[in-house]
Every structure is written in C-alpha cells, then in structure tokens.
Amino acid sequence: MAAKLRKGDKVVVLTGRDKGRQGEILEVNPKEGRAVVAGINLVTRHQRQSQTQEGGRISKPAALDLSNLAFVDPKSGEPTRVGFRIGEDGKKVRFAKKSGEAI
Prior knowledge:
Elements: E1 10-13, E2 22-29, E3 34-37, E4 42-47, E5 56-61, E6 63-65, E7 69-72, E8 79-80, E9 82-86, E10 92-96
Antiparallel strand pairs: 1-2, 1-7, 2-3, 3-6, 4-5, 7-8, 9-10
C-alpha cells in the first residue's frame, strides 16, 4: 500500500497528551505503523557520559502510531485525510481530501 504520510509532511496529533500540536515527520516506519514527529511525544533518556558525548538527561521524540496523526491541509491548516488520484502527467499523486489540493 502506498504511504499516505511521508517524511517531511506537516501533521497534527489527534489523540494523547500532545493532542492538537503540529510538527514535521522526521522518520516513518511503515512495517510497525509508527512515525517520529519533531518536538512531539518527547521522552527523557539518561545518557552515560563518553569521550565524545556529554552525559545527563536528554529529551528526544518517541514514535507515535500513524492512526494518531493527520495531515495538515496546505490551504486551510486544518487536519485532513489523504487520498490518491492520477495527476496531469499520468503519475499517482497524493491530495488533501478537504481542499482537493495536490500535495
């Protein structure tokens, strides 16, 4: 199945403690159905000090389930679903279902 959400897409969180917050997808794992979004779902990890890195408590984003994310419509800025259609050049393109605009 084609990926509806890809790296670099702007998304909004639908559920959980970060509900309503927006961010950009940093990485997607389609096998597990999860994605990492910049600045969202931050967890604290304890890092041991080494010669190259400083130790301490480091915040980094954890993965979210893809079902908890919605694409942000480029026109209205609201959450929307993503569909597929054949573009003018004959290629399959994604489009925002709310505005109908190609992504």
